[in-house]
Amino acid sequence: MIKNNLAVLMAERELKIADVYKETGISKTTLMALSENKGKGIQFETIDKLCNFLNVSPKEFFVYSPFLVEYIPDDNKLFLRLTSGEKINNFYFSFSSFKDEQMDLEMKMYYLANPSKKYDFYFAVSVEEGRTELEKIYNNLNIMFKRELVNNILDHSIELLVKDKKIENATCSLCLIINDLQFYREIEIQNGKVK
Description:
Blueprint: E1 2-4, H1 6-12, H2 17-24, H3 28-35, H4 44-54, H5 58-61, E2 62-64, E3 68-74, E4 77-84, E5 87-99, H6 105-111, E6 121-127, H7 131-139, H8 143-165, E7 170-178, E8 181-190, E9 193-194
Parallel strand pairs: 6-7
Antiparallel strand pairs: 1-2, 3-4, 4-5, 5-6, 7-8, 8-9
């Protein structure tokens, strides 16, 4: 995976999109897409202008992680494939769900996104096999790729859970467990869609 570091470089310099636009002439739409890493491509002239303005090399402008990431829904489970060179790591995630009345205080503390809030459902997403390997991979990623990996696993999990459980309206707590790491997200579902 290759990403650009524009958002980080701008934050370090306390710059806003408008500041970069004013100084470089690069459109705000392009700068926004680049800062969110949503652009489909970037022209060399744009890279040159940004590197020159930010006083960085292309090596500092881009970050690289040696993984191709693929998410595949598989019989109401989430399948994640991380490919690096000839090495392929496959991870299956399983889901557990609980209603509030099914959980004691200890369980709630473990699965809660916000301990002071009551949720209609508590969801846990955990790696079935290879938890330690996924944790090692995660720990060696750049912060940008860590965040993207966790957010994508959570997003794909939510999509599967809402569809599978046929939830129309609910406030839910989602906990992703990767070995000793836990990540939480609160979800609002209205009319069968995540808000």
